[in-house]
Each structure stands twice: as C-alpha cells, then as structure tokens.
Design goal:
2 copies of one chain form a homodimer.
Chain A (H helix, E strand, L loop, with lengths): L7 E7 L4 E7 L4 E7 L8 H18 L4 H5 L2 E6 L8 H8 L3 E6 H10 L4 E6 L3 E7 L2 E6 L11 H16 L7 H9 L4 H10 L2 H5 L2 H9 L3 H21 L6 E4 L3 H4 L5 H4 L9 H10 L2
Parallel strand pairs in A: 1-4, 4-5, 6-9
Antiparallel strand pairs in A: 1-2, 2-3, 6-7, 7-8
Chain lengths: ~290, ~290
C-alpha cells in the first residue's frame, strides 16, 4: 500500500528546444523538476511524446513518486507546434497522463507572464505569435508558421536576409555590409545559399537574425529595411489586439533585440513578465 | 547491316510538366517527335531520367531508328531544375546519350525565342528567371527557386495570396474579395490554409495566381497590391539586364496575364518569340 501523499500538480512546458517539468504542492511551492529534449509534436510526434514522458518520469522520481503516481496527478502541458489543428486529446492519451489539460505553449507563456491579469503577450523567437487575454477570453494573431506567417520572427528575418542577399547579387538592390557579410559566409556563391535554403528548417534561417540586428546597429540600410518591415508588423499585430491600455509583455528569443527599435507608443505599454511559461503551466494545473 | 541514313539531330525540351523530343534533319526539317512526362531532375531525378529516356526512344521509333541509333545522334537537352549546381555531365551519362550537350531549360527557351539575335527573355511561370544574350554572352537574374527567389513567379504570387488572406483573417490588413474568395476555398478555416501550405509544392501555390489576376481585373486592392509588387520586380530585373534597346520576349505560363499590366517602357520593347524552347534545342543541336 502506498501511503497517502499531500496533493500535488504537474506543469509541463513542452517547448521546441526543450521540455521542462515541475511538480508543485497545491500551495504553489515547487518540490521537484526535470528537463528533457525537444517537445515539438509537429516536427517529430513520436520522439516528442517519448521525450516528454521520460521528463515527466524523471520529475516524478525527483519528488519520490512512482511513474504510476506521477501520471495520475493533475497536469497542464503547454505544447509547441500544436496550435495548427492538432488532436490534443490523442496527445494526452499517448502520454499516459490521466488528468491532463493540453494547451499551446503560447497559452502557458501568457499565463506565466500575466498571471490572472488582462494583457497582451508578443512571443517573438524562431516563430511569432501575439495573444491577448481580455475578460477571460484569449484571442491570438499570427502563429501560422514559417511558410505563410510568423512575420517578425527570427526565421522570417533570416529568410529575408538571404532573399535580399540574392537580390543584391543580381543587382536588383544595392549591396551593403549585411548582404556582403552573408554572401561571404557562403563563400561568395549564391548557389550555396539556395542549396542551404532547400533543406533549412525555420531554426536554421533564424540564425541569420543575429546578423540582421548586428548590422541594424550600424544603420546598414538593408538591415534597417528588413527590420522596419518587421517592426511595422509588430505594431500592427499589437495594435489589432490593443483595446485601450492593456499591458504588453515581450517574450521569446528576439524580445530584447527588438526592444530598442520599438516605437514609444509600444514601449510605454511594456511590463516585465510575472513568471515563466512553466510557472504558467503550474498555475493552470492548480486551477484544475 | 543498317543502311547509312541522312544525318539527324535531336532536340529535347525537358520541362517541369512535360518532356518533348524532336528529331530533325540537318536542314532543320523535323521528321519525328514524341512527348512524355515531367523531366524535373531536381524533384525526382530517377523518374525524370526514366521518362526522358522513354520519350527519346519513342521519338526515335517515330523516325524509324533503333534506340542505339537514336542515342548516338547529336543531342541538346534543356533541363528544368538544373541551374542550381547540378552535375550535368552525370545526367548525360545516366541518359545514355553519347553526344549530348545539356543546358538549362531557360537557355533553350532563349535560343528558341531570339534565334541568334541579342535580347532579353523573361520566363515567368511557376518559377521565374530573366536572361540576356549580348554579344554571345548569356547572363541571368533570378531563377533561385521558391523559398528565396522567383519573385513575380506564379508560386510566389500564390503564396503571397495565401499569406495576405491570413493577414486579413487576423485583422492586420483589410479583407477584400480576393482574400474572402481564398478563405472560402478553404471552408473559412485558416488552419486548413496552413495545413495546405505545409505540403504544397511550388506548382500547388501557383494555382492561386489565377485568382490573383482574376481579382486584379476588378481592381481588388489586395490583388493589385500583390501584382504591383511583382511588376516592380519585373521592371527591376529587366531594367538590370537592359543595356539600350534590346528586344524583350515574355515567356512562360503567366506572360500573357502580366502583359496588360506592364508599364509602357517595357511593352515598347516586347517582341514575339521566334520559336519554342524545343526549336531552340534543335537549333543548338544543329550547331554541335
């Protein structure tokens, strides 16, 4: 017989680069946790399920629980790559979690950043998505992925850098330090850029966003052109969600890079996040 | 013993949608031909090689030749999808052609369109590429493929339509008849658009270029916006190649759709093509 234990909950941040699991008491105090590999259910469904399961088991062991006990706890899982028509119930069953609520990674990020307040969250990393919570309802803009959306994201910025480098090579636009620097990385061979793009994933394109911000600092005209277009999109997306004076939280790998370039109208509204996405998952699990 | 025959040459237009082969006497008179399936060596190398071989054999039979005799004739093959760093010599060996010159499909199109004259050829179909022949030298702009290039192509126009439909759905830009018509095709479900794009090939995106031109006729603002950006690119590309009064030939599936929208500066230079890409391949084979 297993002795009765204090009630516990699990929060899971199933992100594209890593999976983080925390176990907390019902007063919110975290007692155990674990970190595992990528949880992107879109790019590798079976691998992601296996890695998430393994990380949950590790966190349970850290709390002195058997796997059976762990998988019976109330859980909230925020998953990368699930906003696009994924069957969330099936994911819960595959994971073996008995009492799980599965949401997007953006939703737990919003919960972590805003707590229970209303506000807007702009998540700008390899991809991009904009969420608003207002009077209990969550609306979102973007998050449609690399091919047709994710404007302002690292992947799109990087792709734009490569496209403009080829335009400069063709003499359609003026070459500058950014385009010359990228062409140099490919040994001055435009065919090498095209070959790279053929198999590149969004994260591969996003690596060039660093070059963009570096050259934008030196007022390179092409870098500024690409950056300004992205900032116009950020303004439009936040503007479409803004109803009055909702606070704005910037999250994601490019948040700090963008911040110095954002117009005062946006920066006035910016507040720091209250907590992480994992905090958000735990907070949601406590409400189950 | 096979009786000696009149000297013959083969021209092969290895296009992305079909492969066309013609056999001509050295005076240029075509005596036989055959048509087969897609010859895009990039998307399906083995299948393309097999289809081209089969079409060459058929054309040979049509001329009363054995396969051995056919594959020994001087041949010029213009291949789709080979401009991006492909090993052309290996393609010739795989095909079993003993005396073959292999060039891009764009080069035989230029030869067919201009004959031996100088001039500019804009090839705008699913992809796009711009070539200039001047004093025996051929230069090109574009043709870098869907992900990073092919501005003004059907695939890019179609992709832009879908991207802007999602922007309209998100309230970032105003919805109009074009975006509403596309959303309707996907049962008003933006997730269905994203799912389509995940597996869509350039040719699949290009199908939406028809919608674009249809709505551009009715002065739909979004259709005109996307179209104007493409036309600006066409002007820039032709402008970068234009040295004075070189004639311009418009080729490809979208040539006639674009023509009414091109500025007078461009249309003044337009001449009709002298012949087809297959004519070009034959003409080049005759020079071997």
């Amino acid at each position: 017989m297993i002795a009765p234990r204090a009630p516990l909950v699990i929060g899971i941040d199933g992100g594209g680069t890593s999976c983080r699991v925390a176990i907390a008491k019902t007063n919110g105090v975290v007692i155990a946790g674990a970190t595992g590999g990528s949880a992107n259910i879109f790019s590798d469904p079976d691998g992601a399920i296996a890695r998430i399961r393994k990380t949950i088991v590790s966190a349970g062991e850290d709390a002195g629980l058997t796997p059976d006990e762990t998988f019976r706890l109330p859980a909230v899982l925020g998953l990368a790559g699930v906003n696009i028509g994924h069957d969330l119930e099936r994911v819960g069953i595959s994971l073996g979690l008995e009492r799980a609520k599965i949401v997007t990674d953006a939703e737990i990020a919003l919960e972590g950043a805003l707590g229970s307040d209303d506000g807007i969250v702009a998540i700008i990393g390899t991809g991009s998505v904009y969420l608003r919570r207002l009077a209990g309802r969550i609306d979102s803009i973007g998050g449609w992925g690399f091919t047709l959306g994710d404007q302002s994201s690292g992947a799109r910025l990087g792709r734009d850098c490569l496209e403009h480098t080829l335009l400069a090579h063709d003499g359609i636009i003026a070459a500058g330090n950014l385009s010359r620097s990228i062409l140099e990385k490919f040994d001055y061979d435009p065919v090498a850029i095209v070959s790279f793009a053929r198999s590149a994933q969004p994260g591969d394109f996003a690596r060039f966003a660093g070059d963009l911000f570096r050259f934008a600092e030196t007022a390179d005209p092409l870098a500024r052109l690409i950056l300004n277009e992205a900032i116009t999109y950020i303004e439009s997306a936040v503007g479409a969600l803004q109803t009055g004076r909702l606070p704005l939280v910037l999250l994601g790998g490019l948040a700090s890079s963008y911040r110095p370039y954002l117009p005062i109208g946006l920066t006035q509204e910016i507040i720091e996040p209250k907590g992480s996405a994992l905090d958000g998952a735990l907070a949601m699990a406590l409400k189950l």
